[in-house]
Amino acid sequence: MTVQEQYEQLEKTVREYNPAGDFARIRAAFEYADQCHDGQKRKSGEPYIIHPLAVAQIVAEELKLDSESIEAALLHDVIEDTPASHDDVAHLFSPTIADLVEGVSKLTRIQYATKEDEQMENLRKMLIAMSKDIRVILIKIADRLHNMRTMEYQSPAKQKQKSLETMEIYAPISHRLGMQRMKWELEDLSLKYLDPVGYEEIVTKLNDRSQEHEAFLQRIQAQIAQRLNELSISHVVYGRIKHPYSIYRKMFAQNKSLEEIFDLFAFRVLVDNVGDCYNVLGVIHDLYKPILGRFKDYIGTAKPNGYQSLHTTVMGTDGVPFEVQIRTKEMHEIAEYGVAAHWKYKQNGQGAGSEGRYEWVRRLLENQEGADAEDYIHSLKVDMFADEVFVFTPNGDVQNLPAGATPIDFAYAIHSAVGNRMVGAKVNNRIVTFDHKLKNGDIVEIMTSNSAKGPSRDWMSIAKSSEARSKIRQWFKKERREENIANGRASFEQELKHAGLSMKDVTSAENLAMLLKKVSYGSLDDMYAAIGYGGFTAQKAVSRIRSELLKLARQQQAEAASIKAAEESIPIPRPVKSEQGIIVEGLDNCLVKFSRCCTPVPGDAIVGFITRGYGVSVHRADCPNASPERRASQEGRWLKVTWGSDTNESYPTTIEVVCKDRLNLLLDISAALSTTQTFVSGIQSRSTEDGFAIIRMEIRVRDGEQMQAIMNKLHQISGILKVTRPAG
Ligand code: MN
Q1: What whole-number percentage of the chain has pLDDT above 70?
Q2: What separation in Å is there between the alpha carbon of 229 and the centre of ligand 1?
């Protein structure tokens, strides 16, 4: 085919799906490209222009894109490979077309090195993010497809390198954009160069058995068609053998030979509506035995790239399994052409009505509100990664940073040591300031020095990534404790003042303990340091203690006032005289008696109860008769009492032991009491049903200390299990 014939064919292809295309401009683009590339040859020896023509042909045939895309495809190598500039193209055609061509050139310039998976994903994202107009990536994929189709003329090294790139970058992007046909072709072509032996084996075997396969496909297809015709379900049905790379992957993953591969055949049934999809599914399952667990409903739940279909695998009558995919014709368009299918609907003027069905395109692309078809196409942007930016290290590694990231973010993303020693940065070989915003595809280089002072505090507000900020904070935390403490203290004091509090309020012994507990720091310096490096804020510190401090301050004021009032009006008699060693608060010379239920001794915590007619009765604070409930219900009758310094010589009290009765037990008990010089006024003993004895002793003791000594002594006696002071 001559160059002219090839061009005629392109025009014809475009005319078929877009009769209103701008053919004068398409021809102008072809003629300008032909002139620019004049004299250049492809590796095959053919004139260079056949490549842009072929790319435009793919863009038309496979993707059915608009006139601008066809023009851009024809011109896609002129900026990169000929003297033509962006301005020239913008002037002769349009700024949009110049941008499209420039976009494709930018993607061409990106260098790939073989990387681990994570790097590959970043590269794919970067490519899409760099293609601000989605047509850029579509044209670039068409360009790559044609280069892969004509790869035989390249050196083996170049074949491998380009094939790897295609397999890792362009096929997955095609998949992501929903373009299955191009994805398959890219994969198969890549496989051919990456594993020529494996590829040949599959292709040869498939060829050898092609007659047999063809017969099988025909037979099944006829069976399905016949049944659907009987039921008057309008449909298209066809069968195919799965593509070589898909078979290759299965063989590899399952470690099987081609003969052992489970499903080599796939049939497709295209129908008019979703209801029929499920009707056909029923027919298929009736005709053939379905294989359990192989049915997938991607109509109910579409794949993330918008793919919709019913999949099932069944066993054919002759024992050969095959897959059947059932979908509507529209679903099929989307499955085959992905994002590109959208244009077709737009151009045929059917777009407006069917837009709801392209929600997934909407998710991929932004800003299509209320625009007419042409405007709409112009405004299409790939917004998948709008909040990320992808840049290169000088070695070609991709770093993925938040949009608006600066060299500081980049440096800390490499390593905190790089960030901490950074003294300068270069972007695309030019020195930039630290707040320079990085763009997709930038090559960033960080200059470091071992004598660098370390990060400065304003880096914290320049950095966009939380990773960089936290690493800077770490540095300040470690390297600058003294400075942090001073800074932290200053902002804390200022914040206190703001809240109407003073440092004195904080540093008093009891307040300080409360404060440190509230903020969970071990010391004030620790808290200051945290505020200083930004791990904590003065506002938070003060707000956590503010209410507590205000309460304490009010309490202290009230106490001071009441003491003052008391001193002025009712003079409290001092020194207070005690009655039997008991001081009753607010009452002097009142009658005091010790309750019989709990028999307190000096040193016990005690409370007083105003009895009717017998003065104040003194209980142990832990006596059940003085329980908090009782004290609350008889408020006003309970008094604060304390032991004075002039206690009696001794106080009567009770002690009880539980023991296993034995010979001479009482003897041992009296010996213990006698060694502690305890006066015993009575002993009662009783036996329990289970063979224990409870001995209750009325004794007189000086104070709690003597009481404790007695109890310890009794505890040591063999057979005594428990020693208590009864109460209640
Ligand atoms: Mn090209």
Answers
A1: 89
A2: 47
Cα of 54 from ligand 1 centre, angstroms:
10
Rounded CA-CA distance 616/624 in Å is 17
User: Tell me: the pLDDT tens digits for 104-151?
Assistant: 998 887 766 666 666 777 777 777 767 777 788 889 999 999 999 999
- State the amino acid at position 104 in one-letter form: V
Model confidence at 347, pLDDT cuts 50, 70, 90, reads very low
- Residue showing tokens 């040869």: 204
Q: How far is the CA of 81 from the centre of ligand 1 (A)?
A: 9
- Which of 22, 42, 59 lies closest to 344, judged by CA? 59
Distances in Å between the alpha carbon of 353 and those of 345, 349, 377, 622?
Answer: 9, 9, 16, 83
DSSP state of 444: E
One-letter amino acid identity for 30? F
Q: Which residue reads 């630290």 in tokens? A: 434
Query: Which DSSP string do the residues of 585-629 spell out, in sequence order?
Result: TT--S--EEE-TTT---TTS-EEEEE-SSS-EEEEETT-GGG-HH
- Show the tokens assigned to 420: 């901490």
Q: Is 271 exposed, middle or buried (0-12, 13-18, 19+ CB in 10 A)?
A: buried
Q: How far is the CA of 400 from the centre of ligand 1 (A)?
A: 27
Question: Burial of 84 by CB count in 10 Å (0-12 exposed, 13-18 middle, 19+ buried)?
Answer: buried
pLDDT digits (tens, 9 = 90+) for 284-323: 988 998 887 778 888 877 776 678 899 998 888 778 889 9
Per DSSP (E only), the strands in 329-436 are 365-366, 381-382, 388-392, 398-402, 422-427, 430-432
For 53-77, what is the mean pLDDT? 92
Residue with the two structure tokens 């930016």: 389
- pLDDT band for 29, please (50, 70, 90 cuts): very high
Q: Encode pLDDT of 454-508 as tens digits.
A: 898 889 889 988 888 888 888 888 877 888 888 888 888 888 888 777 787 777 7
**Rounded to the nearest 5°, which phi and psi values hold at 47?**
-60, 145
Q: Cis peptide leading into 575, omega within 30 of 0? A: yes
Residue 699 has pLDDT above 70, yes or no: yes
Distance 521 CA to ligand 1 centre (A): 64
Q: Which residue has the higher pLDDT, 552 or 102?
A: 102
Q: Which residues contact 285 (CB under 8 A, 6 or more apart)?
A: 312, 314
The span from the CA of 668 to the CA of 649, in Å, is 26
Q: List helix spans (H) across 168-209.
A: 171-176, 180-194, 196-208
| Site of tokens 């070989």 | 429
**CA-closest candidate to residue 71, choices 144, 3, 139, 1:** 139
- Distance, CA 138 to ligand 1 centroid (Å)? 13
- Distance of CA 69 from the midpoint of ligand 1 (Å): 14
Ligand 1 centroid from CA 104, angstroms:
9
Average pLDDT of the chain, as a whole number: 82
pLDDT of residue 577: 63
Distance 51 CA to ligand 1 centre (A): 7
Residues acting as catalytic residues: 80-81
- What is the percentage of the chain residues whose pLDDT exceeds 90? 27
Q: Assess contact for 580 and 574: CB atoms under 8 A.
A: no
264 by Cβ neighbours in 10 Å (0-12 / 13-18 / 19+) ranks as buried
